[in-house]
Amino acid sequence: MKLTSQEIEIVEILEKDARTDLQDVAKMVGLSYEATVTAVKKLEDAKVIVRYISLVDWTKIEEHPGVRAMIDVKVTPKQGVGFDEIAERIYRFDKVQSVYLMSGVYDLSVIVEGQSMNEVANFVSQKLSTLDSVISTTTHFILKKYKHDGTILEAGNPDKRIVVSP
Predict the structure, then answer these.
(1) Residue 4 backbone phi and psi in degrees, to 5
(2) What is the pTM of this model?
(3) 3-state secondary structure the chain
(4) Listed residue (121, 126, 94, 90) closest to 106, CA to CA
(5) How far apart are CA 3 and CA 26, in angstroms?
(6) Per residue in 5-27, is it b (16+ CB within 10 Å) or e — as a string?
(7) Contact 98, 56 (CB under 8 A)
(8) What are phi and psi of 82, to 5 degrees?
(9) Nearest to residue 101, comparing CAs of 90, 113, 117, 112?
(10) How would you label 71-105 residue by residue, b for 16+ Cβ within 10 Å and e otherwise?
(11) What is the pLDDT of residues 141-164, one digit of tens each?
């Protein structure tokens, strides 16, 4: 889909902050409010803007014991459908948050969320690894997020040491 420069600006603005008021977006891109609303509707209908989401730092919420893992998956693609069929089978599982086709040693990168490491491990061993096309998996548990989708979640402590130079 070919977008105008103003439509691309709208997408960039809403990607950074989906709560930006459309009156403000209109001013930022130099369109009328009505033209901006029409453009956003067009982008939503074309699935360029798929969904509006909030970025939540779940580590700050004690009642949320969730565990996330990145799983590298090596698969055998099928004739005529390539990786699409196995990717669809994988993303249909409730625990799966994201699936990406990757270059390199592994074919798919799968983000999984569960209540515990054991729950994620059971998902990998009982559901994911048992799929026909799956050759192997490597699971990496996410211990801490520092930055997600361009947003720094927790700025580090500033270095308070005194600079010493010769």
Answers:
(1) -75, 165
(2) 0.72
(3) CCCCHHHHHHHHHHHHCCCCCHHHHHHHHCCCHHHHHHHHHHHHHCCCCCCCCCCCCHHHCCCCCCEEEEEEEEECCECCCECHHHHHHHHCCCCEEEEEECCCCCCEEEEEEECCHHHHHHHHHHHHCCCCCEEEEEEEECCCCCEECCEECCCCCCCCCCCCCC
(4) 90
(5) 16
(6) ebbebbbebbeeeeeeebeebbe
(7) no
(8) 60, -130
(9) 90
(10) bbbebeeeeeeebeebbebbeeeebbeebeeeeee
(11) 998 888 887 888 876 666 666 777
Contacts of 37 (CB under 8 A, 6+ apart): 22
pLDDT in tens, 97-120: 999 999 999 999 999 999 899 999
Question: Measured in whole angstroms, how far is the alpha carbon of residue 89 from the centre of its chain?
Answer: 18
Distance CA 140, CA 111 (A): 10
